[in-house]
Structures are given as C-alpha cells and as structure tokens.
Amino acid sequence: MRFVFRGDAMRDHTIMSDAEIREHLKFGPRWFELGIIDEEGLGLTVRNFRASDDDNDEHWRYGAFMWFLKQHEDLTAEQCEGLFELGAEDPDWCMGQSMMLRVLERVECPAALRERAGEHPKTTKYWGPDATKRLASQMAEAEQREIEQSIEQARMKEVRQRFVSLLADLGFERKASASCGRVVDGNLWLVWIQQLQHEGVFRVAMSFIPANGGGRVVEFADRWTGGDSPAGRRFDFGIRGGDDVVERCLREIRDFVEVVAMPWFAGRAEAVKVT
Predict the structure, then answer these.
(1) Which of 47-62 are b and which e, b meaning 16 or more Cβ less than 10 Å from the residue's Cβ?
(2) What is the reported pTM?
(3) Are the beta carbons of 125 and 134 closer than 8 angstroms?
(4) What is the model's pLDDT at position 4?
(5) Which of 29, 51, 178, 232 is 20 to 30 Å apart from 119, CA to CA?
C-alpha cells in the first residue's frame, strides 16, 4: 500500500491533549463495534502518537486494522462485511481501499462480498470482471502447482523408501540416518541421498571411513551430474517428468553407485593401504 505524506507543517504532538489526538486519529464508533480497538488500545495509541513524529492519521488506523487481522486467522462473514464497509467509509481513499482489498484476499471472504467489490469504485479495478478472470486463472495455476507438488512429494517418498533395498544386491544394508553401508576389509562404505525438494532432485553422497581410524572422506555426486562428468555420463537424479520418473531415478542412483561410488570406495581403500 502506498500512502501519501501530507505537506502540512508538522504539528507538535507533545502539546496536543488526549481529546485532540483522539479526534485527529478518527477512530469512529465502528472501530470499537468491530473490536478492532478498545479504550485501552486507543489510550496506548494516543501515547504512542504523542511520542511519534508520524502525523498521518490513516497510518495509525491501518496499523490497528492489520493488527486485528493478524490476531484473527478466521473471520466470520459478518466480520468480513463489517471490515469491508469500514474501509469503504474511511476518509482516506487509499488506506480505505487497502483495507477492503486485504479483506477480499482472505480465504474466508464470502463470494457475495467479492461480487460487490467488482462494482465498488474503490475496488472495481482489482475485482471487476477482468480482474476476476485474472484471479480465476491465478487460482487455477496455484491449484495446478499444489497438485504437482503433491505428486513430487509422493515420488520423493517412494524413492527414499526403496533406496535401501535398491542397493542390497551390491552388498549394502541399512545403516543409521537412512544411509546404506557396506563393510569391506574393515572399511565402512556409506551411501545416502539428500532431498533437494525445491529443485525436484536428489543428491547422492558417499563416505569412506577407514578401518585404521583415519579421517573420514566424503564425496558428493555433483561432479557426475553435469555435462563434464568424469564418468563420461551425466547422471540425473531428478523426479520431474513422465510417469516412469521414479523408476528412472532409482536406476540412475543404482548405476551411479555401481559405476562411480564402488570404484571410488576401492580407490580410497587402496590409498589407505599405501599410507
């Protein structure tokens, strides 16, 4: 919301009486009837105003309004109607308009009120026929995103659940923190996957823990997922795409462990022997 600061000479708040400040702030009876403010709250606002250099009365009303919304997660239809009308009646056009729009944004806002908003001079620009079409399109897009996110989460869950059994025939078994491990000549080989949910992809990691108590070595598969992969093959652990994307992701993980991770573990083991 964009407020306009008045060019009037700034008054001295410290010499204003409580009654003068109350009149200036313009909290009418409806503000009290709707429960946005009470005498205690207004008294505090008066004291804050006196200590402030913000002379714009609409800022103080809007602050009280937004605090009320923050404290009420679910408005009744009657509250939505009352708050909308309060904004419509506010002497400051821009601030009143912002109040009305905040009410219309609420999920619980009645459809009938939104229809009225399409014809109201303060809100028709945002809730008229053209705006309603845009809103419907945005809502459809949001719904589609939710569906896609739900599908993506289900796919990621299936990959995580099948990850351990995926590597069983390579000699790996479940270890702590959902990792897979294999002990070879006393050395521990660990493989696990990290979920990069916002990117719709998994990250494969491997860790070599030598039997002699030497330092743990960790390597991530990032180098092998780009076009310049050392293996001559770009591995793809993403779960976005067609219906078979889960099976493809699991195959890619297994291939990576067999083609890259196991030789990497063997190389680390040889290095330990040499040292």
Answers:
(1) eebeeeeebebbbbbb
(2) 0.54
(3) no
(4) 43
(5) 29
